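3.2 Worked example (two chains)
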Amino acid sequence: MQYYIVIPAHNEAAFLSDTLTSVLQQTLAPKKVIVVNDNSTDTTEEIIDHFSSKNSFFEKVNTQSSQEHMPGSKVVNAFNKGLEKLGDDYDFLVKLDADIILPPDYFKEIARTFKEQPKVGIAGGFAYEQEADGSWKLNHPMNKDHVRGAFKAYTKTCFTAIGGLKSAMGWDTVDELLARFHGFEIHTNDALKAKHLRPLGDAYNAKAKLLQGKAMFRLRYGFWISAIASLKMAWKQKKPKAFIHNLQGYFKAKKEKSTFLVTKEEGVFIRALRWNGIKKKLF
């Protein structure tokens, strides 16, 4: 199977070489790797140039954006810039972060999944982060059937059906919800252990939490699902204020009448899906 990779990179000099080396070492090589230098002020561009000069499937795209960290929109906007450089002659498409080290057989196994399970539209492994003692520990705050946004692979049919990625916080939730709406399955493989070099949440703050609540409103969750999801998030992250920030963001978006990310029909499906998941866990 043929696949493309798009890697948004903003000031990733500390990690990017390791990420690109792990891509280079894949037993199933990509057809093309677009690395988007998103307004970096460090040596990110030089690292991209080094790899692209030695390996023909690496290509650089420069783009300008704000220096401010905007969860969701910044990374998706950069991803879309890279996507513009690619055609549609591929079997699956990968959005990869610039701080991930993948095992050598990662994409060989992803390709096997898509080939053997035609209903699967999104696939990926699990993220591990390094402890103080040097060991690597699983860090997966979402359900085990969720693929982290740091290394998501989409079949062409699925990516087309969901209309690409939404430029908003929550994009890596809405993509899976819309994939299910269109009849696709999500597949995770716990044998695929990706090393995440930057600890989860390092760049997030109270403003990001407000955006999380806003995303819940824009996904048409409704108040009760948003409250339950926020409570679960706060408990898992051991940050009680996250619950308050999320609901503040939710009501702020409601007051401002923020545009929705999904249609009414999709919203009905999403709420039913969420309630079924909650009931399964309770009963």
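3.2.1 Second chain
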Amino acid sequence: MATLVVTIVALGAIGWFAYLVGSGSRRDRKDPVPANLSASQTDDEMETKRLDRTLVGAVLSAAFLTLAMPIYYLGELDRQEGFVEEFGTASLERGHHVWEEFGCGDCHGVAAGGGVAAFLEERSQVNVAGWAAPALDDIFYRYDRDEVAFWIVYGRANSPMPPWGLEGGGPLNSQQIDDLLNYIESIQIDQPGALLKIEGSLNGAASRLEGAADAVDAQISEQLQLIETIETAGPTSLVISDIAERARDLLDGAGSGIDTDGDGLSDVTEIGLTAVLREALAGGFVATELTFDPRNAETLIGIRDGSSAARAVGDLESSATSLTITLQNQEVLLEQARFGLGFLEDAARNQRWTVDMDAVAHATFERDGEVAARAVSLYNAYCARCHTAGYSAGPSFQQAQASGALGPSLRDGRALTQFLTHEDMYDFISVGSVSGQGYGVNGVGSGRMPGFGMVLSAEDLDLIVQYLRGATLDGKDYVDGSDPGGGE
């Protein structure tokens, strides 16, 4: 409707302009005498015919505006809503572009369901390949928009999450941050879906706890392999440098000779590269075998052999360069790697990730081991990331349960001191902290404590509170079940 009105007004304006131009042209042809030298109309003519025509035109114009304005107004709301939708769609597209360009999904998962990130753990100087990155597809059930924006802008220290906003030292301006927030909001799962994630999260937490010792042993083996790689960097670098050089010579001469399959590699080059890459595979310098066939242009489906060969040779050269740098810094790297090995071996001996389920069950949950195990898994899945030092980096780096990290320690009766009643603590965990608002005993919210009332059931929230207020975390060391209430 609004478009129709605008079209009518535009056509009317064009018609009126055409009339004025046409009448002027006709007047010029009929009466070339300048208007100021020609006789004017008489008073009778001006006050009758001309005046009448002017008044009729005014009345028609007023009538048109009287009808057009309400019609235009009736379509205004729809037009404004259309603009909002259009701008919103454009913002989502820009936000998706930011998500992909800056690799948010590389850590948080392509669909924002959570993932892992690589990180150098500073205390141990050990490279962590599986730092747990949280899911973002339910984050707005836990934080409000300003709180999510804070983490994006300023990042999270001592983690792989860098600052992305200009204020925090990152590359994104405020418009890009808003677009990214809009995109993340658009991919949020519904609340029933968020609640359905509980059991999967608990199973993951329980599996991690059960397999912690094996995971640490595997990391120790990797660290031993790293030390061996550094120690043998001298002869190894000579071998791989020679292989990489021969592979480069073959690739540089790929255009000479018969190319049966037309893939940019001569038949001789394909046969030679296959032999060289097999040699690299036998030496452990590449992970997969590439067998080039002079009759087949694509060894890897969808990728021409010319591209596959260039990538393989480039990887060999990168490995050779890396080993050369390792050799140049061998002493420093060996010292660092051995220190990391000692850290990991200490973790294996002390097993700080362990939880005495019998003690928890006896002291807090009336000897119910199943309930105790669920409570511990709930804490590990939803609370440990912020309240247990080193938890996100893995069992090798984890300190005592509830020892404190981004959030405060919850050991030695802290939960009982901060919250005098079970109900107060339950309400706080359910809603989370609000910046500047008080909570508990003299607590002041920062907005960084998320609320879990939308992603956990009331029963599960209650179990977390019981566990945190229980005897195994309140500074007492008895396990006889004499205080199952947890200090109320």
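3.3 Remarks
Strands lie at 115-121, 126-133, 438-439, 443-444.
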